[in-house]
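User: quick one, fold this
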Amino acid sequence: MGFTYFKDNMDADVESVVREHSIELHSMKDLDSLIEKVGDARYVLLGEASHGTHEYYTMRMQITRKLIEEKGFSFIAVEGDWPDCYKINRYIKGHNLEAKSAFDVLQEFRRWPTWMWANWEVVALLEWMKVHNKKFSKDRKIGFYGLDVYSLSESLDAVLKYLDRTDKKTMQSALNALKCFEPYADKEGQSYAQSTLIVPDTCEQDVVNLLKDIRKNLTSYNSDAEAVFSAEQNAFIAVNAEAYYRAMVRPGPNSWNIRDHHMVDTLNKLMDFHGAKAKAIVWEHNTHIGDARATEMNRQGMVNVGQLVREENAETDVFTVGFGSYVGTVLAGSEWGGVIREMNMPPAKDNSWESILHGMEGKDRIVFMTDDMKEQIGHIKIDHRAVGVVYHPRNEYLGNYVASYMPYRYDAFVFLDHTKALHPIHLSSDSKEIPETYPFGF
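Assistant:
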């Protein structure tokens, strides 16, 4: 596909094309047009341009509620750790009797960046889900799950606790895996990854054996199908986390690709678990849900969730929604594992996607990426802002933009001109270790 770049004198026709294919967003009622465009899609992927913006979370919550209430979606899957999110899942389904509120559950989220899920906006979502679920039988309750691969030690610990109750024979496999990783417990994945550069012996076979043993004995476990699924999933995470950490200290796209393949594999497993009529809502950063083939990621050999889900399913089964804003405040850290800070996010750079939308009277709006739009401006590469969990506003124009063919990256885009920072439960982070979102930060 040939392309052009925006120059200082932007073609006025581009703005007119965007205007023609968008609607102004004045109230939640205007989201009805977006829900209608979703049609019969079984996968709706909702993005965000940062992990620290209040309006991205609240707008996704409103869209999610409509999808659940009006189109019967089955679960939410997020860019988060499985063990932590599984506690949320049990709480909103009424199984976690110890937690008195969603706030209590989210207090246990301690992996940096804690604010991604331990925030008051998510508290509101979860309390709504808990009330909603009370209306339905066990098999129709809406779930909440984590797709990510980082929870190596937490997942192994969860497997061990489960096997202690159900399968003491297979416990030895779990103990072997834990023993292998024991020398690296201080920094979990990072120190293990560094060690594999020096010593050829790895823990790969230990976690593979654990997964094999659990899968062999699945049918003999107890009647709580979701608990059985979770046990197998935690063993699956251990296998992919081990591979991810080995890859992350070596050059190339392998660690990123392992992570996003794992998230899609987990999503597919969840769809199978929920049955033939299952529908999934995914919450992740734009960098994961916006099709990688429409960015420089493609040239670098990287794939992402949006691309893989589109490739594996019919076009009408997948609907992706990007999010972005022009100016405001954002929650982030100034260094890896550092203190949470509310930062000023400067106006988007000239001729960026966000600047174009701001130039249209600065109105919040929804843009629909139609075939007509692809034909008219799909060949134009436009800079599109992406803020990570580590952010330096002074460097805003140096590395926070992903050049994209926007009509091919998303099916729709929600633009919110002026946004403010997320409201975290934990006000600071005591961790000084490199977080496990390194090196990409999304």
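User: anything notable?
Assistant: The chain has a mean pLDDT of 90.
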